[in-house]
Structures are given as C-alpha cells and as structure tokens.
Design goal:
β7 (127-133) and β8 form a beta hairpin. The chain is built from ten helices and 37 strands. An eight-stranded mixed sheet has the order 6-5-9-2-1-11-14-13. It has an eight-stranded mixed sheet with strand order 26-27-25-24-31-35-34-33. It folds into three domains: 8-228, Immunoglobulin-like; 265-434, C8orf32 fold (Roll), CATH 3.10.620.30; 441-649, Jelly Rolls, CATH 2.60.120. By secondary structure, it is an alpha+beta fold. α6 (304-318) runs antiparallel to α8 (344-357).
C-alpha cells in the first residue's frame, strides 16, 4: 500500500457528494393495500426497502465514519407494532472523550384515510436519548399512528470517530426483506477485510471499484427470507446474512510504514500469550503468588483429581465474580486477589496459575460466548474473543475449568461458554479445541401415588436433578428464596392440593443433589366411567407439544448440554380394580446413537403398577440433517406418553 497525501478540502467536497441519505420511491396505494406478503404468508411485517451507506473520511484532526440508514416497513398484523419503535445504540470512549452521535432523525407513518394517502410525521419531542452505562447511549423513537396496514419509514445518521471497526450491515432480519442495499467508501490508505456471513445466494449486485483515492463497494440483495427464532437456536446472529468489516491495514500521515493486521492464527496465539500488557503468559507463569497454597493443597492428598478440585474450590470460594466478561486483563492478579473481586478472566487466570504452581500443565482457552457469536476460523481475529477458561488433560481426557460460579465443580463450565470451539493457548501446541462437558442436565422425578375412588390421588413426589440441573435448581432457589420458590412450584402444578414441601441439599456448599419432597393429593387425576378408570400416567411430566414445530429447518438444534429426563411413577390401584389395558413398552434410538427413549409399564404386584419413562439426548448439538429424525423422535414420545392405562372393576 502506497502512502497517500490528502487534500482535505477536496476530500470533504467528495464527502458532501457521496454521504447523503438514500432516497426511496414514493409510497403507493398498492403498497398500503397489501394484506399478506405473498412470499411469506406467516409474516406479520415485511421490510420493503432497507438502504444504508458508510463513508470513512478524514477531517482536520482525525478519521471518522459517517453512516446513513433508511428503512421502510409494511405492518401487516398487530403483533408487529413493536417495529414502530427504533433503538439506536452508540458508544462513548471515556478515555479519549470521543463519542458517536445520532443526527438527522426523520420518520413518518403512511395510512389510507378517506381514499387518500395520509402522512404523519415523527415529532422531535418524541426522540429520546438515554445513557445506558459509562460507555453506551441509546437514542429511541416511536413512530405515530401505526395500525394494521400502515407503512412506517425512518432515516438517521450516525457520526462515528471509530473507523477501525465499522458497523455490520444485516441483509436478513426476523421478518422478510424485499430489498436491501448497502454502500461502503473508504480511502485507499485504509484496507478492510470484508466477511460474508450466512449469504448462500447470489447478490443481485456485488461491485468493488476504485476511483482516485477512494474504494467503493456496493451490494444489493433481494427477497431475503425471514430468519425467525427457533427453539434451541444458540444465537440467531450466528446465522443471519450480513457483512462484517475488519481493518486489515492502514497508514496515515506521520507513519513511516503500514500497520498490518493481516496474520495467521499462530500470530494471534503469540499476541495472546506474550503481549506486554495483556499477555496471558505473564499472569499464569509461576511467580510465587500461589506457592504457599499450592504446597498446602498438594500435601493434603495424593489424589490428583482431588487436588484439581481443591484448587478450583479455593479460587471460587476466595473470589467474587463482578460479572464482567473478558479474555485477559491488564491488572496484576496479586492486587485483584487482595480485593477479592475480579472479572472472569482474572478469576480463571488465577486458577490456571495456581494449578501450574501445583505442577499441573494447565493452560488458558480463549473463546467467544454464545451471545457474542461464533469465531470465524477462516479469519484470525483476536477481537472475536471475550472469555477465557482453564484447561488441562487428565487421564487422556480434556477437563475445562471455570471458577466464576460457586456451584460448579471441575469439568463444568457455564452455559454461555458452550459455543462449539475455543483456542487453546499452549505455545507451539496452540490449537482449536471442542468445548464440551462430561456433565449432563439430568432431571429426575419419582412419584408414589394411591388412586382414590373420588377422582383424586394421594402420595409423595420427589424432584431432583444431577449435573447442570443440580446447578439450575440451587440457583433458582437462592434467587427466589424459599417462599417465592414454593409459590412458583404451586403455579406450575395447579392440580396439587395443599402440598407440603421438604427441601434437602439446597445449600451452596452441599456436595449432594438438591431434592424436593412433596406430600400432596392431586385433583382431577383421572376420568371414570362405567366401572372403569382412565388414567394418563405421566401426571404432568409428559411432553405434550412438539418443541420442534417447524416441519423444516436448516439450522442445528442446540440443547446447550446433553440432557436426560427420567420419571418413575408407582400407582396403587383401588381395591377391586385390575388393569384392562396398559400401554406397550417402547424403545427408540436416534441416528448415530444420538439419543434414546424407553417407556415401560408393568405390574409390580397384585395392587401396584409402575411406569418408567427415560429420555436421553446424548449430544448437546444435532446437525440440520438430523432435524427430521429428531422431530419424529419427539412426536413418537408425545404419542406414547399420552397413552392411557385403563383399570376395570372386577366382577364377582
């Protein structure tokens, strides 16, 4: 890249010509009369036109980006009224006192009134700016007079002093988009890597050209289907069609050489490990900080796994997480430990450092959390990471470690970390590693119930959970406290009459699974007719509707963790009754041994029937090509669990 001299006045003139709000064609009666979008009859709204542009320019003191956005949306149903409200988030850099500004907000709503197109303008008094935190502002407005059939339209400008990471452009939304257009201009002393995500169709226009000292990119995409939220979708943002911009190199007056960000993952590994301020090596090397506690733990047991667990307990019990995410820190860990409060990076780097002091080959794994999105492995970008956990190999298996949660044990990591892969930082042996956990989310219930002749049942129900279900139950109990937790249980089980609850092992430091024991009677427990009792035996624990309602899906199904759902129900029959019909047993298996369902109904003795239902999802993620099998699996479970037991009164 050659060094370029700028004539500022000439460039500002170019800016005035290029950086203008995109123009839209007039709204027509045909547009306003549309009641259903022909290409998506389920859509409650459709983006008719979405246009934007961005121009990177130099003023007298710095480089900036000016964004223009214009959107027109057709409202088809009341459920889309929320689209009339727009929220624009902007950033403030406290250290340099630079902030993004929202300007030139305009908006209007179009309706048909007395066979004439009416226009209601957005009032300036209905535009609000709110400071969300020390780094973020929110500008919001709601367009007026919105109803079914309305067309809303708005435009605004963002003036940003942060040219190093331009905003993404989203072609796809949760509603269909008829037309999307974006343009990007940058001076050719700045070069950007442009990443295309989720774009499997051809652009209607995809042009890149250079004129003078400006690079111009221009994209148009039409008839983009909605990408709606689906059950068990990890993060919709990982799949939508969009453009992402990353600065690859630049040079400005005063620099003697180009600053390049183009690199390999090995370069990223080295920077992550050895950066003078933020390098991970400096935080986890043996410095003597953990020497005494390491000796104490090592001398307490010869069991290596128990040593690992004790190290994790020490850090998690002596530190409180401030709920800040990061993959590294510029603060000395000694001072953080003295304060007893730290970020996720500070706490987990402490754990890695302690384990190293104890003689373990522990190393950091940097990752992107689920909400932050996937890492693009084809593009070595350090900016995609926002979290770090610990890793070590033990008896041939990977163990991941996180000490931010006081309930999690060795091998367990928070749900938000379960995001496919992370980067293990281990010198020349750095590599991608699959993020997983050997622990499951296991829900267990056991019911012993006596069938009464008045339509009720009476008995005991026990609810417990292992693995991640254990954590969920304890966290919910702690958050709601006992009385509110009981009220929640009652609302979830309205047929329980005057339930009495006993709670065990809900203490944070308990090594046992939490258990809820409920002594209760159940109203309307069965139907009776002509000396017969018709009983649906799952008693509220059945899957009643298929969570995978969509017949087609092109995205993975993500349960976060492997799951098990186990229910045992034991019924004592009324005196004089015998089974007339009982569901047959069933065993199902998912492809590639991805999961199993077993259902058994049988008599234990002359007076007792037992039902055992077990569902196991052995993997946390199922690819799109297994979706049909997974959906059918749920359908078969629903049908089997809905089958009735029929009891008949014996005749003399």
């Amino acid at each position: 890249m050659k060094k370029i001299s700028f004539i500022i006045l000439s460039f500002l003139h170019t800016l005035s010509l290029l950086a203008q709000s995109p123009k839209l064609p007039p709204v027509t009666f045909e547009d306003l009369s549309m009641e259903v979008y022909s290409k998506d009859s389920l859509a409650d709204a459709v983006i008719m036109i979405k246009k934007g542009n961005a121009l990177l320019y130099e003023d007298q003191t710095s480089y900036n980006i000016r964004y223009h956005y214009t959107v027109r949306i057709k409202i088809l149903k009341k459920s889309a009224y929320s689209l009339a409200t727009t929220k624009i988030n902007t950033y403030f850099d406290k250290s340099s006192n630079r902030l993004e500004r929202v300007e030139e907000i305009h908006g209007q709503t179009y309706n048909i009134e007395n066979d004439v197109i009416s226009t209601t303008e957005l009032s300036k008094k209905d535009i609000f700016e709110t400071r969300k935190d020390e780094h973020h502002y929110e500008t919001s407005f709601t367009l007026p007079q919105v109803k079914e059939g309305s067309i809303i339209e708005y435009s605004y400008v963002i003036e940003s002093p942060f040219p190093f990471r331009p905003n993404d452009w989203k072609f796809q939304e949760h509603i269909p988009v008829k037309y999307s257009e974006y343009e990007f201009w940058n001076p050719n002393n700045f070069a950007y890597r442009i990443i295309y995500q989720g774009i499997s169709t051809m652009f209607d226009l995809n042009r890149a050209e250079t004129s003078g000292n400006l690079n111009h990119y221009h994209w148009i995409l039409k008839d983009i289907p909605a990408l709606r939220n689906e059950p068990f979708m990890k993060n919709r943002e990982d799949y939508i069609a969009k453009l992402h911009f990353e600065l690859s190199e630049y040079i400005v007056p005063g620099m003697v050489a180009v600053k390049s960000f183009s690199r390999k993952w090995e370069d990223v590994d080295k920077e992550l490990a050895q950066d003078e301020v933020y390098g991970l090596d400096a935080h986890i090397k043996r410095t003597g900080l953990w020497e005494e506690i390491a000796k104490e733990i090592n001398s307490s047991t010869t069991d290596s796994l128990e040593r690992i667990k004790k190290a994790q307990r020490f850090i998690r019990n002596n530190m409180t997480w401030n709920e800040h995410f990061n993959y590294t820190t510029g603060t000395k860990l000694k001072s953080v430990f003295e304060k007893k409060v730290g970020s996720s990076a500070e706490i987990n780097l402490m754990l890695i450092g302690l384990l190293r002091e104890m003689g373990f080959d522990a190393n950091p794994v940097v990752l992107s959390t689920r909400a932050n999105g996937l890492v693009w492995k084809d593009f070595p970008l350090i900016t995609r990471f926002n979290y770090v956990i610990g890793h070590l190999s033990f008896r041939g298996k990977d163990i991941f470690l996180d000490a931010t949660n006081k309930l999690m044990t060795a091998g367990m990591i928070p749900a938000y970390c379960m995001n496919v892969e992370g980067r293990l930082i281990k010198g020349r042996n750095s590599r991608w590693i699959e993020i997983n956990s050997s622990d499951k989310n296991t829900n267990i219930t056991s019911s012993v119930l006596e069938i009464n002749m008045d339509g009720t049942m009476k008995g005991q129900i026990q609810l417990t959970g292992n693995g991640y279900k254990n954590i969920e139950m304890k966290e919910e109990y702690a958050a709601l406290e006992k009385d509110k937790f009981i009220e929640k249980l009652k609302k979830e089980h309205l047929t329980w009459k005057s339930p009495q609850f006993t709670f065990q092992n809900f203490e944070a430091d308990s090594i046992y699974s939490p258990m809820i024991t409920v002594e209760t009677s159940i109203e309307d427990a069965y139907n009776a007719s002509n000396d017969r009792i018709y009983l649906r035996p799952m008693m509220g624990h059945a899957i009643e509707t298929n969570p995978l309602a969509n017949p087609n899906r092109n995205l993975p199904v993500d349960f976060t963790y492997a799951k098990e759902d186990n229910h045992t129900l034991t019924f004592t029959m009324p005196e004089g009754y015998v089974p007339e019909e009982m569901p047959k047993g069933l065993k199902l298996t998912l492809p590639n041994d991805g999961g199993r369902f077993s259902y058994q109904v049988g008599r234990i003795d002359e007076h007792t029937i037992q039902v055992i239902s077990k569902i196991s999802f052995k993997r946390s993620v199922y690819p799109a090509d297994e979706y049909t099998a997974l959906r059918t699996f749920f359908t078969q479970i629903i049908a089997k669990q809905a089958e009735q037991i029929v009891l008949k009164k014996k005749t003399n």
